[in-house]
Amino acid sequence: MRVLKTLAQTTVLGCAVSMIPAAAFAGGWSTEGIADYDLLFADGKFVVETQATYADRNVDFKNAKTSQNGGTAVTTDSDASDIAPNIAVFSGAVKVELLENLDLYARLNQSYLIREQPGFDWNGRYAIGETNADALGFDAMLSYKHEVSKGNFVRVFGGLRSVTVDYEQLSKTDGSRLGFGDLDTDINVDSERQYGYRIGAAFERPEIALRAMIAYESAIDLKLDGALNIQNLGSYDSVAKATLPQSIEAKIQTGIAPKWLATLGVKWTDWSVLDELAVDVAAPGLAAVGVDPRLGAIPGSVVRGLGYSDGWIVEAGVGHQLTEKLSVGSSVTWDKGIGGPYSDTYSLSLGGSYDFAKNVKFTLGGRAIYKTSGEGVYEIDKSALAGDSSVRTDYEYDSSWNFAVSSKLRVAF
Prior knowledge:
Structural class: mainly beta
Number of strands: 23
Shape: elongated
Largest sheet: 14 strands, antiparallel, barrel
Oligomer: single chain
Helix content: under 10%
Number of helices: 3
């Protein structure tokens, strides 16, 4: 019984074992790792948690070639440095015990984030100069825990997840046919709050720190409104549609020896559903074109091909409680690339958590990420009264090392 009691104490190691969201650095646009709502399972009637992660990213494009309307490839200025700027991700969550076996969980976070900035000097500027997107997510779930036999519990949970998205796509338009040079071009669209859901279940045996969990998150359909702006040609109302992918994840943790905890998790995300991002533009009609023929070049639609493949994350970790106040942990992660600038990554994280007081825990750790080499394409198709046009930029990038640091503060009452 003493061994079982000691094993049960290893439940406090969860923060130290898996504390940095792996998907903040690869695997598409999501910043959410595997079961990063572990606060749902925390002890305490009222628990608050905040987390901040900073990532130093290092990706350079090379050997870029651009063609327009199937013409001769453009090979000048074929490199773009630091296309993935450093990012910071923040979140805050709360867990409230409503009844003895019924809990409420709520979280505010940056669930999706895009920063692709090859710039406006490389030959791919006619396809993409920058892509920036910010999302504000809000989750709310209820969790019910039932003892099915002595010391064994089943938990079911579910609720809403929601998100708003601001999307910006900047590029240059070759204005030589219109009597101009390169024209600044940008698409700015944003969404109202859109909703999906999460459902899941877990089996728990606290005396050996065992928890096995599986969860499903639904896709979220987005409708975005805004404008297309082209230098010297005006601003035009625009709408876009996109689908944020569904996912399935599973995670198991268990005490393996006194004061030792092991974890294993896997997550699949349906990124292949995001095949393209299509923007419909309120382009000028024939009457306006008769007044100024240049307006015939305003596209009625702009379609960005994405062609992502499904994403997978696999993570294994181990934690050890050194003292009553100090725990340490480490994990290794494989994150399958989905295409474009998002290639496979392999990472190692090290962290520790310290109890400043009975109900105050601080966690700090770092992650070293090896990003594999890859290749991708930016492809933009435009349809206008003056005729359809397209821009295609193929590029490559070498393998690189990326780094991240994360901190977490949890307070229980």
